[in-house]
């Protein structure tokens, strides 16, 4: 089965940037895969923050529009989430995921902490 391993989290000051990475092992990424990122907040509420569908179109939750950019590199089985102008409310655990043929695969999560 597919395994996702993510990295790139850390402690940053408000206003700074951070980029998360996610490697897809096993069966590699395909252009038809739906890839995305979820944010589990300090209140342990998980929300979808970014998505790239099989056609390559991107979606972002309103709170991160203009600040976060999701991308993928199919050739090396990588997913990225570039986060700019980070805010304290962005703090939490971020999970990458892949949806393939209605089956979901999740990363282990990486902690992002934004200090004020």
Describe the 3D structure.
- By secondary structure, the chain is mostly beta strands.
- It is 0% helix and 56% strand.
- The strands form 2 sheets. Strands 2, 4, 5, 6, 9, 10 and 11 form a 7-stranded mixed sheet that branches. A 4-stranded antiparallel sheet has the order 1-3-8-7, with no helix packed on it.
- It is globular and about 40 Å long.
- The termini are far apart.
- The mean pLDDT is 95.
Number of strands: 11
Structural class: mainly beta
Percent of residues in β-strands: over 45%
Cα Rg: 13 Å
Q: N-to-C SSE series? A: EEEEEEEEEEE
**Which bin fits the share of residues in helices?**
under 10%
Mean pLDDT: 95
Shape label: globular
- N-end to C-end Cα span: 40 Å
Low-pLDDT regions: none
How many DSSP helices?
0
Main sheet attributes: strand count, strand direction, barrel closure: 7 strands, mixed
Features:
about 120 residues; seven-stranded mixed beta sheet; single chain; four-stranded antiparallel beta sheet; mainly beta
Task: Characterize this entry briefly.
The chain is built from no helices and eleven strands. The protein has 116 residues and is mainly beta.
What does the secondary structure layout of this molecule look like, with pairings?
Blueprint: E1 3-7, E2 10-13, E3 18-25, E4 34-40, E5 46-52, E6 58-60, E7 68-73, E8 78-83, E9 92-100, E10 103-106, E11 110-115
Parallel strand pairs: 2-11
Antiparallel strand pairs: 1-3, 3-8, 4-5, 4-9, 5-6, 7-8, 9-10, 9-11
